[in-house]
Amino acid sequence: MKKFIIILFSLFLTNNIFAEIKVPGSGGINYWYDFEQFYKKQLKKSQKKKQKLIFYGSTSEGGWATGFKIVKDINDKVHEQAYKNCMKGAKKYTQNECFLFAINDKIVWTNIDEPIASVEMNVEIAENDKKIGRFFEDQPDVNDDYQIHFNYLLAKDSEDRELDINGKMEKIILMANKWMEISTSKNKKGDKVPRKYKLDYRSDGKLDITFIRMDKNFENLHKWANNDITPFLYKGKGQTNNKKIYFNFADINSVDGGEAGVGFGSIFLRNKSVSTDKRRAAILLHELLHTQGMGTNCMPWVKSSNLKSHDNHLKNRDKRTMLNSVDPSSPRIGKIYAHNIDMCPQFMDSVYLTPTRENAYDPYKIFCLFELGKYKHPNYLHIIKKLKEAGRYNWKTRFSTSCSTRNYSKDSQGYYLLGVEGNILQKINY
Q: Is residue 11 part of a domain?
């Protein structure tokens, strides 16, 4: 009798699990273009094999995850396997549930084009993080000029090494800026004027460094941590000033030693390639180049400037002159800094450098808003035309580093930015 009851109970649980597993998803999908392309790739494989496809998905602002099975026959076991595969990825990338997306070529997920609401985060400051000399918000600016603002950033469960208050961050930042002066003054094609970045200072003359603790443990952060960090800073910490670059000394690991786009960037201090202060200063300078939109595809020395897929780095030997391998006695910045290519911005003319040249370019206006001004290079116009024709965003279709404040929850609908009303592609007439 007991054995019979156990069997019935097991069947009840199994049926309920399968019933939940088969639930279709609903609502907007973050990173929709990439998600859809991956689904289509698996569908093509299944059709080529003349088999059937079960496809599950999960989505959040942090990313997307999928699980699928290509099989001869669809049954409950196949559903369960696809769901479990999806949940493995979801645990790392979305921290959300997986739902049924498609069976073969029939998409059962509904309301995909539904706008995804932004979540305003209100993260309380832990008592252990409250320390003398530490600031949790961007302090009042001493001027209204363009400037680089720095954060000391930790995951929710990361060790606090106090780099923002023990002087170590400031030492590295000032070292890097000194190297900038050396490299710009020695650039062969430049105007020989020593230039450095405009940094965000407090009224007491100290660098303005904000302490940030994320709302997620390290293991729950996206594989490319900036995918979680940037929306958190923008929506949850109010770092929304488009005349600032927000740059993180992130005391965590990530795929690379550094990662940056226009508006936001990070170096990952726990990455094995970031082992010394000099190395941190070098990677900082390299990533800050990317926050300026460099390298851009109007430069023939940039990888994949053939318009197929933009890489943002110089080719071959020239790639060592993007300040990522710095000899302190002779740091080199190379062709990105100064050139004679018509309608193509040169880094020497960035608004974030001082002394600032006349008619300096604002990377946010050019590479985020597509307000090209005098920089209507044919390569730029070609990329914008391709985006307009596609009617959606594709991270591979770009002419510079990506805009960090892109609203990727609306990628399937065009090109949208956080804090900007409307589709950017519908606002331009070239």
A: no
Give how many domains the chain has, as a whole number.
Answer: 2
Query: Which 8-state DSSP code applies to residue 343?
Result: T
Residue 312's pLDDT band (boundaries 50, 70, 90)?
A: confident
pLDDT higher than threshold 70 for residue 174: yes
Which of 353, 387, 412 is a domain's end point?
353
Decide: 305 and 299 in contact? Cβ < 8 Å: yes
Residue 245 neighbours by CB distance under 10 Å: 26
User: In which order are the strands placed within the sheet that holds 258-260?
Assistant: 209-213, 147-154, 244-250, 264-268, 258-260
Dihedral sign computed on CA atoms, order 56, 60, 61, 67: negative
The verdict on 279 and 320 lying in the same domain is yes
What is the domain extent for residue 185? 127-353
Is the same domain home to 227 and 182?
yes
pLDDT at 308 over 60: no
Strands 106-107 and 99-103: antiparallel
In a domain, 115, yes or no: no
Only one residue has tokens 């786009």, namely 261
Q: Is residue 10 part of a domain?
A: no
Q: Is residue 217 part of a domain?
A: yes
Residues 91 and 131 in one domain: no
Both tokens of residue 12? 């009840």
User: Mean pLDDT highest for which of 89-103, 160-174, 389-403?
Assistant: 160-174
Q: How far is CA 1 from CA 4, 6, 8, 139, 308, in A?
A: 5, 9, 11, 72, 68
* Residue 316 burial (C-beta neighbours within 10 Å; 0-12, 13-18, 19+): exposed
User: 161 and 269, same structural domain?
Assistant: yes
Q: Are 111 and 27 in contact (CB under 8 A)?
A: yes
Q: Estimate the crossing angle of helix 277-291 against helix 168-186, to 10 degrees.
A: 60
Strand partners, 267: 249, 258
Q: Is the alpha carbon torsion for 372, 374, 379, 381 positive or negative?
A: positive
For the record, the structure tokens of 359 come out as 């008619």
What is the distance between the alpha carbons of residues 168 and 255, in angstroms, rounded to a whole number?
24
End position of a domain, from candidates 308, 331, 353:
353
